[in-house]
Amino acid sequence: MTAVPAAFAFAAALVNPGPEEARELLVRELAKEEYQDARPGVLESVLQGILDWFAEVISQLNGFSPNLGTLILVLAALLLIGAAVWVVKPRRNARRRAAAEIFDAAAPLTADEHRRNSREAAARGDWDTALTERFRALVRSMEERVVLDPQPGRTADEAAAGIAAAFSAEAGRLRAAANRFDSVRYGKVPASRDDVERLAGLDDSLAAASPVSAGDASLPPLAVPR
Fold first, then answer.
1. Would 183 disulfide with which of 33, 89, 187, 208, CB 3.0-4.6 Å?
2. pTM (two decimals)
């Protein structure tokens, strides 16, 4: 459930709350995961300001039924929060995308350099590094062979899909490799020797194969310099 629908569901559930009860309900609502996940740190003061405004206006209400006035203010506060969440959501998604990129911001390495890093990590039993570096070697190799265009910010899934377009027979293994890379690199799921050996086998298979466009399956494979 996203923050905005959750806000409306919360407001609809209110039945004749008093001012203090309504404020307490709002504070509890803002503590829910969908609001906490959606707001960056910069909204801390905005949300606190909404709560302060809410308390002040309730204390100054004149001419309204207390229950009606409280409900109106709760709805207004939740609409403001929902609007803030809607505005910052693209920024949040951009941060998540940046966290899922294949390559770090360091100076780019060649495919052979990534393979060397993978072998060295495997020799010392660091299977996580060995796997991530071998996947990077595979993707960099595809860029060097002009199967993929170099693209900053590319994710493992995007790379797997792009490579599979030229090596359709390996689509399943490519998807599995991308998932394993993400689970190790970003999900903190430990890699094993078998994971690294499977990925190395895929990398070696692709290195020995020639890419074929999806629409050219009936044509002889296109030779691409390696």
1. 187
2. 0.54
